[in-house]
Design a protein that fits this description.
The protein has one domain. By secondary structure, the chain is mainly α. The chain has nine helices and two strands; from the N terminus they run βαααααααααβ. It has a two-stranded antiparallel ribbon. The chain is rod-shaped, with a radius of gyration of 30 Å.
């Protein structure tokens, strides 16, 4: 029984273009010498390699796009937080300048610290103002808080909540896309290594053909000796 491929989600030491080229070279050798290598390779390895080479071409730009979306979502969240915090800050300042009683200031959240970059802090600060203003509209008007201020606060609260949800979704998606890309690339490298190994054994007495298989593993390897054995990974069935 052939051992399954062992792959990880870590970023490969080789570039994705290099991995693709290695995969194509190994695939060509595996197809040319299919009859000889077939018994030495895991079932479905060659078919899986074909799929993974195609998949990697789609996964690389996909991972970059997902990361870009995550950055954009974070930027949108920051803009929403900045706007909401600015409104809270100025309304609180106006209430203080109006010499409102202590209990009123407390009801509006004055005295509670707000981290302008913290979603929860800004949301709570806005909610305090909205709850008090809606509970005591005449009081709010006397403090200079008018309906359009309430409407603007509600818009800011909705924008912050939506931006936060989108940012969390994009941040969650980006690593998954990157892991899938890395896993595909590492699976190609694992398949290349198996094809190389099979060719080394099969053609050990044919220097010309042997050299083609040895070339698959030529060059500087990205990890120190022994790292492959120490790195955690999961077995992937060939294909």
């Amino acid at each position: 029984m052939n051992a399954p491929l062992i792959v990880t989600n870590t970023l490969p030491s080789k570039s994705f273009n290099t991995i693709t080229q290695l995969g194509l070279k190994a695939l060509n050798l595996a197809l040319v010498h299919n009859a000889a290598l077939g018994p030495r390779l895991p079932q479905g390895l060659v078919d899986g390699l074909i799929i993974d080479i195609e998949k990697l071409g789609e996964a690389v730009p996909g991972a970059k796009f997902a990361q870009g979306e995550a950055v954009a979502a974070t930027s949108a969240q920051n803009v929403a937080l900045e706007s909401g915090h600015a409104q809270v800050k100025q309304i609180r300042a106006a209430i203080r300048r109006a010499k409102a009683p202590v209990d009123v200031k407390r009801a509006y959240g004055i005295g509670q610290k707000v981290n302008k970059t913290n979603v929860r802090d800004v949301q709570v600060a806005i909610q305090h103002i909205l709850e008090r203003a809606e509970k005591a509209p005449d009081e709010a008007t006397s403090l200079g808080i008018v309906p359009k201020d309430i409407a603007k606060l509600k818009q800011s609260l909705a924008a912050i909540t939506q931006a936060d949800a989108q940012q969390e979704q994009k941040r969650a998606t980006a690593p998954g896309t990157t892991r899938a890309r890395n896993r595909t690339a590492n699976r190609i490298l694992a398949a290349v290594a198996r094809i190389e190994g099979a060719g080394r054994i099969e053609f050990e007495d044919d220097p010309a053909i042997l050299a083609e298989f040895e070339a698959l593993g030529a060059g500087t390897r990205g990890k120190k000796k022994g790292d492959a054995e120490n790195e955690e990974g999961e077995a992937d069935p060939a294909g």
